[in-house]
Every structure is written in structure tokens, then in C-alpha cells.
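Appendix B. Chain record.
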Amino acid sequence: MEEINATGRRKAAIARIYVSEGKGKIIINKRKFEDYFTTKHLQYVVQQPLNLLEVTGKYDIKVNLDGGGTKGQAEALRLAIARALIKLNPEDKSILRASGFLTRDPREVERKKPGQPKARKRFQFSKR
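C-alpha cells predicted for this chain:
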């Protein structure tokens, strides 16, 4: 099997992954998966598509993660893994789609407007 690549995005985070057959190792930015995502919740989020299809120990995943915070990076990686699994086995698409792992979350930070301290917040109004 050749190496399969996929991309996932969430907020400002971008995950580029390369999947190949192996023993289930996940390497993120040349670090172990458990060292990069230290909380159990984020580790669970990343492994959701693999656990759903029961292929946790089948593939080695090499990841380049960039931008955003830890939660955005974890969700970007989840999307990338789900997309890569579809390239490997197209019949799994309906299962992953039903669980919501293929939907790209479109919410981004709204830009700051001039004359305001933040995007929606206003300076205090003074009548006199």
C-alpha cells in the first residue's frame, strides 16, 4: 500500500497527514501522539474515527500540525484522519458521515472592526 495523504482544518489549525499500513503509531510534528495531546479528552477526539471503524492498530499516521490552539488542532486532525480513511476504504463514508466526522466546522474568528475594541463589542456610549 502506498502512502495516502489528507488535510483537515478547524479555526486557524491545519493538519496534513500521511497514512500508511503499520502498527497504529501516530507521530505529530516528530513527537509521540501522547506527548503532543496530553489530555485524555483530546486524545479521544483524535482517535474517534479510528475507534468507530475499529482500525486503531492498522495504520501508522504521520502528522504536520500548524496554527490554532490544541482543541482546534485535535478537531482538524480528526477531520484529516476521517478523510484519509475514506480514501483507503470508500464504503466507510456513510458511517463517518453519520457520526459527523466529515463535516468541516466553518466557524472562524470574526475580524475586528475600526472604531470598536473587538469584533462586536462597542466603546461605552456617552450622551454628553
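Further analysis of this model is presented in Appendix C.
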